[in-house]
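lol ok so funny story. i was supposed to be doing the assay writeup but got distracted and ended up predicting the structure for this chain instead. priorities right. anyway since i did it might as well share w the group, maybe its usefull for someone
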Amino acid sequence: NISTALASPGDSNFIPDSWPPSPDFPICLSSKGEVLARYGENIWDLSEWAGYVLKLRFSSSNRKDSPFISPANTEIFKQVVAYWLYGPKAIREPRTLHIQYEIIKPIFTHCSKQGIDATALHRYPSVIESLSKEVWPSQANTFIHLLHNLWSQREYSGLFILDPDGIAILTAMIPEHIKPQTAYIPPRIWLYQVGKLKEFLEDFEAHIQDL
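and the output, tada:
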């Protein structure tokens, strides 16, 4: 359902050949029909869809600051993102796909660090609690929404990360997002202050000779 001319009925990347897709299944094609990203690859280059450089990395890179993602969690991560592309109510915009990828990524890095598969996370309450520290409070609502969707659509996607009990534990542990207040004077008060200042200046000018 990606909104692009590079994925149309009849194209080799339009419908997966199996679920999960086979490793050689093409995810993204160029305008010339060249395969730019295959399901089995650990980096999907979706730049052709987005119109800017957009690469989704599902495994650890060689960079020292790259978070570790185990091979098992790499495969789970890819299946989740592929489901967002091909499941019911699939994502239409590459930017939205990228945002959801970034929001849910901490699950796979944290589970890899703890030595468990993300699909087994619901069996480890203590790991769920520690995961709450990896979630940005400002993204918590979207994060929880994505987990709810995976649970409710598990028969279609073939997996889930947390069940309702696990989601409840995580929700309770994520700190409340406090929005910063912006300095702001309501128009009514601003007009009152300007009026008073005008009266002060006029009064000052009327009596300046008396000083």
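The two ends are 78 Å apart (CA to CA). The chain has a mean pLDDT of 87.
back to the writeup now i swear
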